[in-house]
Amino acid sequence: MTQRPERPWRTVVAADLHLTPADGEGIARMEALLALAGERAERLFLLGDVFDLWLTGAERTVPQFAPLFAAFRAARAAGCALLFLPGNRDFNFTREDGAPLGIDVPGSEELDVEFAGGRARLLHGDQLLTDDHGYQFLKRVVRSRPARWLARRLPPALPLAVGRRLRRYSDRTVPRKAGHVVRIVPEAVAARIAAGAERVVCGHVHRFERRTLPGGGELLVVPPFCDAGAFVVELRGAAPGELWLGAPDGRLEPLAPAVSADARQAGADG
Question: Which of 86, 96, 145, 152 is most buried by its number of CB atoms within 10 A?
Answer without folding.
Answer: 86
